[in-house]
Amino acid sequence: MTALALPTRRDEAWRYSDLDALASVWPVPDATRITVTAGQSAHGHLLQDAATGAAAVHDYVIDIADGGRFDFHLLNIGGRLGRVTFAVTLGKGSHFELNGAIIGGGDQTLEIVTQVTHARPDATSGQTIRSILGQRATGSYLGSINVARDAQRTDAFQSVKAMLLDRTATANAKPELEIFADDVKCAHGATVGELDRQALFYMASRGMDPATAKTLLLKAFVAGVFDDVSDEAVKDRLEAAAIAKLETLV
Amino acid sequence: MLTIDNLTNEIDGKPILKGLSLAIKAGEIHAIMGPNGAGKSTLAYTLGGRPGYEVTGGDASFDGVNLFSLDPHERAAAGLFLGFQYPVEIPGVSNLQFLRESLNSQKRARGEAELNGGEFIRLAKEKAALLGLDMDMLKRSVNVGFSGGEKKRAEMVQMGILDPRLAILDETDSGLDIDALKIVGAGINAIMRKPDKAVLLITHYQRLLDYVKPDFVHVLAGGRIVKSGGPELALELEREGYAEVVAA
């Protein structure tokens, strides 16, 4: 982030944000730069669990050279404002994979903003985001995919699903595609739903108390996001933090 | 064990049950038969406490406790089991996880010790074997990708594991072929045919009653029990049709 002026809601990428909270930490620190060299694989993760009331903004600028691969796992659960952005540029035949979960309650605003640029041919990217929002929380995913003119045979997908636990919670999902090549596969799906009442009654009829039943359904909803974290200790930490956060919402 | 007295209810403001009374004692198996739209499934769901099935009058007491004062999960902990006509699919939650959480929730509510992982698996294996259901099925998500027959067998495995005192089985025979019907019938007998337990079977057809012999048969029509009798009533219904028997 080089702009020093505080963004406004007229800026598309800040449309759903909590600008009052942002003002308390503006200007935010420089982006973290990650470069994956040709043919290499790398991975990263972030557990965004800032203290209640804090504002946390993490920006990543990621360059993946030809034939490289980068996998990132994100759990965004902390702070009054928790915002994580990715600006990714993909080289020839490279791959970017983001698996992220947002779990928010109270008055939290939690955001994932991605801009994935397929600059060269044959690159692939996948983004899977699951959001669980309760109370008055707002969770947003703004994801744009840009495919350059010569980035033929691009294959990109975005899968975004949000679950609202209360009528006062909000989910925003905004996939955006800008494609200048003609041999391209870009898939995106976004759904917003609530806990399955039929399933909840079925579980209750077997004796499960409502909190246990809800927690089990929500765990199933986010299961998979952290399945392929290679480091078992990191995986355990992300899953434990996700479950602990869920339990505060049911 | 279960006494239903002049029960009336509504769904979306529409009256369905119109003064239904029924008494079931421990050791008894009752069958409720009736034409489509008579209120059979409504009775099952109302006793189970499904949201939207509003009780507008009458009582139901389960071992002296007002059933309608309990939430659905409390009814289960008190010993009520509801067999679903259309068992619900729950993607991402395995049968074993689902059943262990259910059983331990019930045990917590009753102040009993919970089962640990090993104890639970032994119990699940035993009950799955009773119903001829492969343990691998129980590792899969609840009812997801199960055939109609497998869902009904899985329901009976659930019943075996949860070990209720009163089972209300809503068209457990629908969707079963003859072989599966025999297995499910034998399962119901093995699990529930005991002096301290009771069963309310809801069915359209006589055929399940060949395997699970009822002590009493009731005809439900227009939201009321219009006729009661012994097992011979089911045969009469099969022979004559509901219209004849209801009119008689």
Automatic annotation (TrEMBL), chain A:
Limits of the SUF system FeS cluster assembly SufBD core domain: 35-221
A single Pfam family it belongs to is SUFBD_core
Q: Point out the signal peptide segment.
A: none
Q: Which residues form a coiled coil?
A: none
Give the top-rank taxon of the lineage listed in the UniProt record for this protein: Bacteria
Recorded hits in PANTHER family, A to Z, give:
PROTEIN ABCI7, CHLOROPLASTIC (PTHR43575:SF1)
User: Know the name of this protein?
Assistant: SufD family Fe-S cluster assembly protein
Native organism is Sphingobium soli
From TrEMBL, chain B:
Q: Which UniProt keywords apply?
A: ATP-binding, Nucleotide-binding
Annotated PANTHER family: ABC TRANSPORTER I FAMILY MEMBER 6, CHLOROPLASTIC (PTHR43204)
Instruction: Please spell out the taxonomic lineage of the organism that makes this protein.
Output: Bacteria, Pseudomonadati, Pseudomonadota, Alphaproteobacteria, Sphingomonadales
Q: Does the keyword Lyase apply?
A: no
Cite the ABC transporter domain residue spans from the record. 2-247
User: Which InterPro entries does the entry mention?
Assistant: ABC_transporter-like_ATP-bd, FeS-cluster_ATPase_SufC, P-loop_NTPase
Q: Which family does it belong to?
A: Belongs to the ABC transporter superfamily. Ycf16 family.
SUPFAM superfamilies in the record, alphabetically? Answer: P-loop containing nucleoside triphosphate hydrolases (SSF52540)
- Which gene name belongs to this protein? sufC
State the protein's name.
Fe-S cluster assembly ATPase SufC
Glycosyltransferase listed as a keyword: no
